[in-house]
Write a structure and sequence with these properties.
Blueprint: H1 8-13, E1 20-25, H2 39-54, E2 59-61, H3 84-100, E3 105-110, H4 116-129, E4 134-139, H5 140-143, H6 145-151, E5 159-161, H7 164-173, H8 211-214, E6 220-221, H9 228-251
Parallel strand pairs: 1-2, 1-3, 3-4
Antiparallel strand pairs: 5-6
Helix pairs in contact: 2-7, 2-9, 3-4, 6-9, 7-9
């Protein structure tokens, strides 16, 4: 079920407490020379809508939040960003409205890496404000790690930003908006384990870089390996793995009367 298609009286009659409220989180930022500024928003929206279509009776899907925490991309023209503390507050206030509708389970589905830290910080505050509401935050690439591992052709360093995966997904979903002739491999080339960069690699240290410090084109990864066929495989697998989490989340608290941890 899509919230934007409902009227206010219909929402009032809706048993929101029986549904998972799904809020996709995107961004508006540079994606190299070959992908549009709305790439993260386009992708997480497509994933969220596909998951909702699989479970329309269990999910109340909200429009995607297109603004994200993208301060690290600001040196590249076109990027629009919300600073970290205001973004935390934005998520808190959006969830306040969702809880006000009667929600007991909220799923923040993230589509932009920069939203990760403020998203987790918002959950800490929300737990104190609404202890009876279960709110989870997850990036789709974390939930779909197995799919990404199976479909990708690049080695570590190939999937990061405007990369093999994101470019493949956009070639499948929005081929008219991809400029493949301009796609270039770029990003950190470090071999030591402390500075490797890849969506599927957790570095043992945490450090902050501005994007212009680690890439010339704005790309991190191997977009030249992208194909529309691969994008279809990525999307099908990602939607399947996110749906599997939704099914598990839907059962939390139903079997024993207590939330699973």
């Amino acid at each position: 079920m899509l919230l934007e298609n409902l009227t206010s009286p219909e929402v009032k009659r809706l048993k929101v407490a029986s549904k998972i409220v799904l809020l996709p989180l995107g961004s508006f930022e540079q994606h190299g020379s070959h992908l549009p500024l709305t790439t993260d928003t386009d992708l997480v929206t497509a994933i969220a809508r596909a998951v909702e279509a699989k479970r329309p009776d269990n999910i109340l899907c909200l429009p995607t939040v297109w603004s994200g925490h993208s301060t690290h991309h600001l040196r590249f023209p076109g990027t629009l960003s919300v600073h970290q503390l205001p973004y935390v507050q934005l998520l808190i206030e959006l969830c306040e409205g969702i809880v006000g509708m009667g929600a007991k389970k909220i799923f923040l589905l993230n589509g932009h890496g920069g939203n990760d830290i403020p998203g987790r910080a918002a959950l800490r505050e929300l737990k104190s404000l609404y202890p009876r509401t279960t709110i989870v935050f997850a990036s789709y690439w974390a939930l779909a790690a197995q799919t990404i591992k199976q479909v990708r052709e690049s080695q570590l360093g190939g999937i990061g930003h405007a990369c093999e995966m994101e470019t493949s997904l956009m070639l499948y979903l929005h081929p008219d908006r991809v400029k493949m002739a301009l796609a270039r491999r770029d990003g950190p080339k470090h071999t030591d384990p402390y500075r490797k960069t890849d969506m599927q690699y957790g570095r043992p240290i945490y450090m902050v870089n501005e994007f212009h410090e680690v890439t010339t084109t704005g790309t991190i990864g191997h977009p030249e390996l992208a194909t529309a066929a691969k994008g279809e495989r990525f999307l099908t697998g990602i939607v399947g793995e996110v749906t599997a989490f939704v099914d598990a989340f839907n059962q939390w608290g139903k079997r024993s009367g207590k939330q699973k941890t």
